[in-house]
């Protein structure tokens, strides 16, 4: 079974946790919904992406690489984004994937070209992994805010834009950028509206993203909805699906720079 998380925030949480546990090499892509299961089966056969905890430990001791495969539907399309993550180690015979290293600038793990996984200093500790907006996407949001403020009749557009920004998953890197976009909004509004206060700005930045047990459903259910032109995730799944019994189990593969980043408070979706 290929599990698909029912929350966007948890879809981002899983590969980030894997990177923090040493799965820093990655290959990513997009695949049509009707080909996802075939791709997952191919990776499972080649890389043992469904390996058990004990198998992963044995492979690690022998210097053999371990792998994880994740996928999540891309809204507004009939395709899935996917991530194949690997630890350092000997790859399967005959395999020569173009691995990228998430710890290196220019090779960072990304989510839908809007977010990138980075290491940021933590208070009183070593750098830890988090998500942040890519420079390009952040710049696009700044321009969109300024344009809406200056546009005649653009208040509704601005309110909708700010609402979406404040619903982004509350990873530490994203939260800092949302706070900066708030400051940009206030400055632009005062400049364009003779010092007035912006009435469309939500009262506060999104709360920290809490790492709770992942809720997922079989990919077949999501694929069926996508091919019917429905929203990929049924809202009732978010309310009724039981949390997964296990998540990424091989804690001993942890990257020495640390596991996850902050104490979190919310599970709001973006």
Task: Give a short overview.
The chain is α+β, with helices and mostly antiparallel strands and 270 residues long. 36% of the residues lie in helices and 19% in strands.
How would you sum up this structure, described in words?
This protein is globular. It contains eight helices and nine strands. The longest helix is centred in the last third of the chain and has 21 residues, at 172-192. It folds into two domains: 3-131 and 210-253, no CATH class; 132-192, no CATH class. Helix content is 36%, strand content 19%. α4 runs antiparallel to α5 (155-166) and α4 runs parallel beside α6 (172-192). It has helices at 8-20, 36-47, 53-61, 135-150, 155-166, 172-192, 219-227, 235-240; strands spanning 3-5, 25-32, 67-73, 79-86, 100-101, 110-111, 115-122, 125-133, 216-218. It is α+β, with helices and mostly antiparallel strands and 270 residues long. The strands form three sheets. A four-stranded antiparallel β-sheet has the order 3-4-2-5, with helices on both faces. A three-stranded antiparallel β-sheet has the order 6-7-8. The two termini are 26 Å apart.
Please describe the topology of this protein.
Layout: E1 3-5, H1 8-20, E2 25-32, H2 36-47, H3 53-61, E3 67-73, E4 79-86, E5 100-101, E6 110-111, E7 115-122, E8 125-133, H4 135-150, H5 155-166, H6 172-192, E9 216-218, H7 219-227, H8 235-240
Antiparallel strand pairs: 1-9, 2-4, 2-5, 3-4, 6-7, 7-8
């Amino acid at each position: 079974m290929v599990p698909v998380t029912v929350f966007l925030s948890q879809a981002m949480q899983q590969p980030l946790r894997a990177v923090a546990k040493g799965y820093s090499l990655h290959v990513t892509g997009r695949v049509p919904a009707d080909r996802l299961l075939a791709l997952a089966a191919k990776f499972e056969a080649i890389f043992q992406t469904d390996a058990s905890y004990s198998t992963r430990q044995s492979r690690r001791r022998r210097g053999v690489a371990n792998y994880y495969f994740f996928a999540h539907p891309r809204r507004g399309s009939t395709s899935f984004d996917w991530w194949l993550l690997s630890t350092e180690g000997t790859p399967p015979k005959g395999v020569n994937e173009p691995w990228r290293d998430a710890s290196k600038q220019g090779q960072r793990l990304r989510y839908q070209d809007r977010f990138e996984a980075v290491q940021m200093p933590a208070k009183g500790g070593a750098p830890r992994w988090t998500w942040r907006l890519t420079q390009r996407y952040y710049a696009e949001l700044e321009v969109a805010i300024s344009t809406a403020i200056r546009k005649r009749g653009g208040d509704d557009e601005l309110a909708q834009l700010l609402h979406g920004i404040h619903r982004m998953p509350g990873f530490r890197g994203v939260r800092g950028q949302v706070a900066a976009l708030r400051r940009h909004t206030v400055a632009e509004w005062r400049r364009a509206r003779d010092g007035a206060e912006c009435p469309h700005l939500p009262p506060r930045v999104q709360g920290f993203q809490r790492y709770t047990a992942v809720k997922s459903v079989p990919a077949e259910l999501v694929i069926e909805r996508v091919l019917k032109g429905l929203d990929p995730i049924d809202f009732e799944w978010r309310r009724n699906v039981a949390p997964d019994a296990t998540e990424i189990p091989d804690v001993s593969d942890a990257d020495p720079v640390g596991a996850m980043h902050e104490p979190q408070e919310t599970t709001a979706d973006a």
